Every structure is written in C-alpha cells, then in structure tokens.
C-alpha cells in the first residue's frame, strides 16, 4: 500500500493541518494545535501510519515531500532536535506492527497529499 502524507501550517509557526491520500481518497486533520512546519509534517506521517494500520496493511510505502521527516523516519539521518524526537519515537511505535515499511521522498509537486491540502486550503 502506498500512502502519501503532507502537513503544513499557516503562518509558520501556526495552526497545523495534515492530509493523507491513499487509493484516490483523501483524509484531513485540522486543529492539530500550533507548531512549526516540521512538526506538521511529522503529525502527517503519524496520521498516515494510523491510516495504514486501520486498513490492516502490512507492507506500506509512505511518500512525503519533507526530506527531513523522510530521512529521519527511515533512519538515514539522526534526529538532532529534541522537540522532534518524540515524533520519531511515536512513528517507530506506530509502524512496529507492519511487516515492511518504506519511506520515499518526492517533490512537492508530486505529493498527492500536498496537492489535496493545497486545494482544500490550510486553515
């Protein structure tokens, strides 16, 4: 299963929202509190992991446009930010039940969740 994710906030920092797109369907979360863009992206990835788990998926590819989140979540980069570490820890717990997890970075213009979030408009 491939799940696209994107998070954003306006202003930055500001009110955060997330979007997840899978199999042509979009799911949105608003009112995620105040935070910065990186926190919004992490919350979107957690939203995507929850979405995938709810469908019973076992082999999941998460696709996002945040290089920081994709690289940290995949273990390619260390998380050096104490305020982002809890998100990484939560992601590891959220995907522990999946047989296989892949993360892929794409350009913003190719991120279906980012496109859905833009079309819908951030709060």
Automatic annotation (TrEMBL):
Keywords: Hydrolase. The keyword Hydrolase applies. Gene3D superfamilies: Ribonuclease H-like superfamily/Ribonuclease H. Transmembrane segments: none annotated. Its EC number is 3.1.26.4. GO terms for molecular function: RNA-DNA hybrid ribonuclease activity. It comes from the Bacteria. InterPro entries: RNaseH-like_sf, RNaseH_domain, RNaseH_sf. Residues 1-123 form the RNase H type-1 domain. This is Ribonuclease HI family protein.
């Amino acid at each position: 299963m491939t799940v696209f994710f994107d998070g954003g906030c306006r202003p930055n920092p500001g009110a955060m929202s997330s979007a997840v797109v899978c199999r042509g369907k979009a799911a949105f979360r608003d009112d995620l509190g105040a935070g910065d863009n990186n926190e919004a992206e992490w919350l979107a990835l957690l939203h995507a992991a929850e979405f995938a788990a709810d469908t019973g998926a076992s082999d999941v590819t998460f696709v996002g446009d945040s290089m920081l989140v994709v690289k940290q979540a995949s273990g390619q980069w260390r998380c050096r930010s104490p305020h982002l570490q809890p998100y990484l820890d939560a992601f590891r717990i959220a995907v522990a039940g999946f047989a296989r997890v892949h993360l892929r970075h794409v350009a913003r213009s190719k991120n279906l969740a980012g496109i859905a979030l833009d079309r819908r408009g951030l709060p």
